Amino acid sequence: MSLGLVKPKKVIRFFVEKKSKQEIKEAEAKKDSIINQLHMFEKKKDLEVLPVRFILEFMCDDTDCSTHKLSILDWEFGQLYRRIKNTPDWEEKMHNKVMEICSDKRDTYLILGNMARWQHVFCILGFFYPPKVRQFSLF
Q1: Which of 40, 50, 94, 134 lies most in the core, judged by the most C-beta atoms within 10 Å?
Q2: SS3 sequence of 6-45
Q3: What's the whole-model pTM score?
Q4: Which one of 2.20.28, 2.30.30, 2.40.50, 3.90.1200 gives the CATH number of domain 3-18+53-128?
């Protein structure tokens, strides 16, 4: 199984973790090797390696659940970080965005996925968070 949809029962916290210099160095090397494989006539666009990791800790609906801590790989969060990283309160803005998505006003689901190399480690690939709509009585 490589994809899943999970409805968090309770969001415990969102936090940002700095990547080690070694992690960043390895990611830069991998990125460069991928860019260098492109066709020579394609315009090469440099990709920024994020120096941080976004993590969501939550509880699922399983009665035995203690908590889950999963990295958020959602492209929109990377873009939000790139847009606000130079503001003094960027971490607070990221936190507020996650809490808005996971608020009681939303029917939030986490889209989870794994990678072939680490089949038992899942990450948050995206969020599905339509507004909660109360169904009216039929009678």
Answers
A1: 94
A2: ECCCEEEEEEEEECCHHHHHHHHHHHHHHHHCCCCCCCCC
A3: 0.83
A4: 2.40.50
